[in-house]
UniProtKB/TrEMBL annotation, chain A:
Catalytic activity: L-glutamine + H2O = L-glutamate + NH4(+); N(2)-formyl-N(1)-(5-phospho-beta-D-ribosyl)glycinamide + L-glutamine + ATP + H2O = 2-formamido-N(1)-(5-O-phospho-beta-D-ribosyl)acetamidine + L-glutamate + ADP + phosphate + H(+)
PANTHER family cross-referenced by the UniProt entry: PHOSPHORIBOSYLFORMYLGLYCINAMIDINE SYNTHASE SUBUNIT PURQ
Protein name per UniProt: Phosphoribosylformylglycinamidine synthase subunit PurQ
Predominant location: cytoplasm
Keyword annotations from UniProtKB, A to Z: ATP-binding, Cytoplasm, Glutamine amidotransferase, Hydrolase, Ligase, Nucleotide-binding, Purine biosynthesis
Role summary: Part of the phosphoribosylformylglycinamidine synthase complex involved in the purines biosynthetic pathway. Catalyzes the ATP-dependent conversion of formylglycinamide ribonucleotide (FGAR) and glutamine to yield formylglycinamidine ribonucleotide (FGAM) and glutamate. The FGAM synthase complex is composed of three subunits. PurQ produces an ammonia molecule by converting glutamine to glutamate. PurL transfers the ammonia molecule to FGAR to form FGAM in an ATP-dependent manner.
UniProt record, GO biological process: 'de novo' IMP biosynthetic process
Origin species: Candidatus Methanoplasma termitum
EC code(s) of this entry: 6.3.5.3, 3.5.1.2
From TrEMBL, chains C, D:
A Pfam short name: PurS
UniProt protein name: Phosphoribosylformylglycinamidine synthase subunit PurS
Organism whose genome encodes this protein: Candidatus Methanoplasma termitum
Similarity remark: Belongs to the PurS family.
Assembly information from the UniProt record: Part of the FGAM synthase complex composed of 1 PurL, 1 PurQ and 2 PurS subunits.
SUPFAM superfamilies: PurS-like
This protein's UniProt keywords: ATP-binding, Cytoplasm, Ligase, Nucleotide-binding, Purine biosynthesis
Any one cellular-component term (Gene Ontology): cytoplasm
Length: 278, 621, 79, 79
């Protein structure tokens, strides 16, 4: 995490809730990424939202403009990645979350956060804001193991997703992946078509020249190379790769090979949503 | 412990025995040490007997077990301390901030960085997954103890050959199986804790078949004003036990680490092997750093080898005080543990902190917020003794100096035979293609990417130079990784490893030097300046003069070159008794982990060739 | 008191990388005639209630936490 | 052809973080009376051989690869 110059956007104080439970990680860099684009990010433990803490520590989801679920792991990813975090959220603050989403407020889930959003039923959410049970799954990588490697994403969203609102369609970004369970699956044969029809596909894995990815460019075997999707309303997005790890160029795996810009490729995602909220 | 001739059960409603050493002769003492798995020699037992003669009573089983732990090689470095003192401890520089559980060096005006490496060899040879995972857990705690946020991990490993199924002695596991388990253990624990594994190495040779080496290093960053001490602030303080519950796991782990592996180790060392729980660890790290950052505590130390028995004594003694412990307050995993088991258990994920009584409440509140168990179990006193109580009964009282001092040996050694130019034969090479292919397919040369990419090396978003460098998805190994420890600053910490066991076997003195030299070159190759080293000295049985000679010479080499370069070694670890069954010793392996500084990481360089037509220079001779 | 086994299987058609990696390793160790290996997850749960009720409770646990219906099926048996 | 279940249990006294984290979550979801949760690994293996032989083969697989006797015990049953 390094300071990033060149941020001129000074929007109204956008308050971001970066949610954590025991065993989450990546929350510091997630908060840092939002701060880098001028937002006010706070690390909030799930306990603080459920009232299981002394008065001055309590928080209400209502107070925030953006909810961010960080990557890494949660509760060791025992049972299934994201399952424990999702079940605890749903039972404790399920209605607060539904209200938050129906209010049109942005929710971002990265990596483990994406897994949590799917387990919660906030993605793909074809029929309702939050489905009762999960309707998709992020399943074990085809390789059967954890993969930490650079991946290249193409913005395939036609304009609905709030997190890519200032990123040109077709734009290529280099955003690294690090996960063991990132293969987006559904048993619905029309799954991909539905996502396409609703403009819910956000990012696809591609090769450097933008052509179709195969392993390792698609690190998990996800169908149609999908790396990130949003809900039908466009305010909930989940993605496997980690934009918060590339806020400056100096954390890109290949920056010594002459990357052109000083910004990292993850920055525009955070900037998009903050600009929308200004 | 079952009823044995020398153990007299005390008339109390719990398991407590007085051990009759006062009326035991040498043979009896030897038998007591063996039957109680104390790992103490007859001479050591006699010293203990003399002490208790002065006390006018026999020791309890709790006291004997505590001595067994405290006087093990692992805890008191009895065979190596003299050598370390003579050659490496003395290298001082004004930017060494601490030589505690981890070494701490100045990073910038406001911060220090922590470094330490440790071995987890024997547990990993028995249960590779759990052994490696708990190794990571332990080294993370050593860094957290300094008040430092862990920012990176290193994992240099040595195994037997993996390119073929080999004949292994009974009880020894296939190197392939061991390597797979160790890599998975490091992956799962490191990734789940969210600390990037950024450097390391793998080395393969037959001589590691019976005794693999799993060394794990950790780096951290701490604000200078938050630098923690590892001992009590003085008398009248409270000791708070933090983290996991105490169980039977890991009992006699340190004695086990200080013995040769025998063929039956796999079946009967279960108590010495533990599984880590990264999900407890992560909140423990957060909570410990929070109470330290708020300056609510006076000292902090992790529970490693020897468990409570070592940590309470060391924290009190170094703080210039004694301690009274309420042993029954210790939260347990299971019922029915005898007091001595609780006292020496090495259950994972535990730390101890000391504080002024008025801060206890605030501290407990913070741990509660993180759902981390924290229990006051002891008080520091103005005596020089440690006492333990169980349901009102005093079950332990010993002089701290005697308990934690431990013996120190000047064991006999033989100067190793050093290979000379005359001994070297340059092999006749077949054609170049064949040689190249053979080299590239040798596990010592072949790409380690399959393992490196299972470790998250970018979590925390602060990895500037990655372990693999070059064109995306066509990368090769880099020389050193660079981390950006301070958010908002481009000052970088370069980290790399160095060790050449083959050299060291031929010439231990120069082999020790070569490890430091390699670590330095790796660091310089990314554009950073070497600043400090930490070392893990993996050697064989020190009671064999030729093995001790190797250790001594290697350490002398390390010391000479480090002093020559004026680069300190503020921390390290010694792992002896690395011998498989039948006394096949490992190669002498002084593993070096080096740290370097680079003022502006934007000026870092990587090894990959950037474009056609560049010039290549060879530097040095 | 009842002890139940909650068995979580992958649904048909869902690839099983852990199973196929294990199969490969077994074959490389020289095991012959291995047609298929499936990795299954079992939770052995001890509940303070009669067997009938425990079974129902186990099923509810699957629906709420232990299984993802998209990829997994579950079955509960009393031990 | 025979289908066997190879069940790998953690031995008594070996910590089971997956089991205990799952228990904690079930409790926080409001499940009552949960005394214990153990995470067990099962491999369902289909073998091209008669049941008797398959059982023996499964046991050999455990000894050579699937189980570590230090922390795990195993049992093989024919389905
Ligand atoms: N080879 C070595 N080089 C430098 N320092 C060492 C070496 N071996 C041990 N030390 C230092 O000696 C101290 C005691 O080590 P040890 O007893 O293993 O630590 P702990 O109390 O964390 O178990 C530590 O500060 C350690 O860094």
């Amino acid at each position: 995490m390094v300071d990033h110059g060149g941020v001129q956007v000074r929007p109204k104080e956008v308050k971001v809730c970066v949610l954590r439970i025991e065993g989450t990680n990546c929350e510091d860099e997630m908060a840092y990424a939002f701060r880098a684009v001028g937002a006010q990010a706070e690390l909030v433990h799930l306990k603080q939202l459920t009232g299981a803490v002394p008065g001055e520590k309590r928080r209400n989801l209502e107070e925030y403009d953006v909810l961010a679920l960080p990557g890494g792991f949660s509760a060791g990813d025992y049972v299934r990645a994201g399952a424990i975090f999702a079940a605890r959220m749903k039972s404790a603050i399920g209605t607060d979350i539904t209200r938050f989403v129906e209010d049109g407020r942005p929710v971002l889930g990265v990596c483990n956060g994406f897994q949590v959003l799917v387990e919660l039923g906030l993605l793909p959410a074809f029929d309702e804001t939050m489905s009762k049970t999960a309707t998709a799954a992020l399943y074990t990588n085809n390789s059967g193991r954890f993969e930490c490697r650079p991946t290249i994403l193409r913005n395939d969203n036609r304009g609905k997703c709030i997190f890519t609102s200032s990123i040109a369609k077709g734009k290529i970004l280099m955003i690294p992946s690090a996960h063991a369970e990132g293969n987006l699956m559904s048993l619905d044969p029309d799954f991909i078509q539905k996502l396409e029809d609703n403009d819910q596909v956000v990012f696809r894995y591609v090769k450097e020249d933008g052509s179709k990815a195969e392993y390792p460019w698609n690190p998990n075997g996800s169908r149609s190379d999908i790396a990130g999707i949003c809900n039908p309303a466009g305010n909930v997005m989940g993605m496997m790769p980690h934009p918060e790890r590339v806020i400056t160029r100096y954390t890109h795996a290949d920056w010594t090979r002459n990357r052109p810009s000083a910004d990292g490729d993850g920055l525009p995602i955070f900037r998009s949503v903050i600009e929308k909220l200004k | 412990m079952s009823e044995k001739g020398f153990a007299v059960k005390r008339k109390v409603p719990f398991e407590l025995h007085d051990i009759d050493i006062l009326s035991s002769n040498d043979r009896g003492l030897k038998k007591i040490s063996e039957d109680m798995s104390l790992g103490l020699s007859v001479d050591e037992m006699k010293t203990i007997k003399d002490y208790f003669k002065k006390e006018g009573r026999n020791p309890t089983d709790v006291e004997m077990q505590a001595l067994g732990q405290a006087w093990s090689e692992h805890c008191c470095y009895k065979s190596s301390k003299k050598i370390l003192k003579q050659f490496v401890f003395g290298i001082d520089r004004e930017d060494v901030l601490s030589r505690g559980d981890a070494g701490v060096m100045v990073f910038d005006d406001e911060h220090g960085y922590a470094l330490r490496v440790e071995s987890h060899n024997h547990p990993s040879a028995i249960e590779p997954y759990g052994g490696a995972a708990t190794g990571i857990g332990g080294i993370l705690r050593d860094v957290v103890c300094m008040g430092a946020q862990p920012i990176g991990l290193a994992d240099p490993l040595c195994f037997g050959p993996i390119d073929k199924e080999i004949d292994v002695p009974p009880g020894v596991k296939q190197p392939r199986y061991l390597l797979g388990g160790v890599v998975s253990g490091i992956r799962d624990y490191g990734n789940r804790c969210g600390i990037p594994t950024v450097t390391g190495g793998m080395f393969f040779d037959e001589r590691y078949t019976g005794n693999c080496l799993v060394n794990v290093g950790c780096f951290g960053i701490v604000r200078k004003k938050d630098l923690a001490r590892n001992y009590a602030g003085g008398r009248g303080e409270v000791m708070i036990l933090i983290g996991g519950r105490t169980g039977r796991d890991g009992i006699h782990g340190v004695n086990f680490a200080s013995q040769d592996l025998t063929t039956t180790s796999g079946e009967d060392s279960r108590g010495a092997v533990q599984l880590g729980d990264p999900i407890t660890k992560e909140p423990v790290i957060h909570a410990c750093l929070e109470v330290n950052g708020k300056h609510l505590i006076t000292g902090m130390k992790d529970l490693g080898g020897g468990g409570l028995s070592c940590v309470v004594g060391e924290m009190a003694l170094a703080g210039g005080c004694g301690a009274d412990v309420d042993l029954e307050k210790v939260p347990l995993k299971e019922t029915g543990l005898a007091p001595w088991e609780i006292w020496v258990s090495e259950s994972q994920e535990r730390m101890m902190c000391t504080c002024k009584p008025e801060n206890v409440e605030k501290i407990l509140e913070i741990f509660d917020m993180w759902d981390v168990l924290a229990t006051p179990i002891a008080k520091t006193t103005d005596s020089s003794r440690m006492r333990l109580f169980w349901k009102g009964e005093k079950i332990f009282e010993m002089d701290l100096e005697f308990l934690t001092g431990g013996p120190q040996y000047d064991r006999p050694f033989i100067m190793p035979k050093v290979s000379t130019k005359k001994d070297e034969v340059f092999p006749k090479l077949p054609n170049g293609n064949e040689v190249l292919l053979a080299l590239l397919s040798d596990p010592n040369v072949a790409s380690k990417e399959w393992a490196i990419r299972q470790y998250d090396h970018e979590v925390r978003g602060a990895t500037a130079v990655h372990p693999m460098v070059g064109k995306l998805n066509m990368t090769g190994p880099g020389d050193a990784a660079i981390l950006l420890p301070v958010s908002g600053s481009m000052k970088g910490l370069a980290v790399a490893t160095g060790c050449n066991p083959w050299f060291t076997a031929q010439d231990p003195y120069r082999g020790g030097m070569a490890g430091i030299d390699e670590a330095c070159r790796n660091i310089v190759a990314v554009g950073a300046k070497p600043n400090a080293f930490t070392d893990c000295l993996n050697f064989g049985n020190p009671e064999r003069p030729e093995r001790l000679g190797e250790l001594r010479e290697a350490v002398r080499g390390i010391g000479d070159i480090a002093r020559g370069l004026n680069i300190p070694i503020p921390s390290g670890n010694v792992s002896l008794y690395n011998e498989g069954s039948g006394g096949i010793g490992i190669l002498p392996t002084p593993m070096i982990v080096g740290c370097g500084l680079i003022d502006d990481a934007r000026k870092a360089v990587t090894a990959d060739l950037k474009k056609n037509g560049s010039k290549i220079f060879l530097i040095g001779k | 008191m009842a002890v139940i086994d909650i068995r979580i299987d992958l649904k048909k058609g869902v690839a099983d990388p852990e199973g196929s990696n294990t199969k490969k390793t077994l074959e490389s160790l020289g095991f012959k005639g291995v047609i298929d290996v499936k990795a299954v997850k079992v939770f052995e749960v001890t509940l303070d209630m009669p067997a009938e009720e425990a079974k129902k409770c186990g099923e509810e646990m699957c629906r709420r936490l232990l299984a993802n219906p998209v990829i997994q099926s579950f079955s509960v048996t009393v031990r």
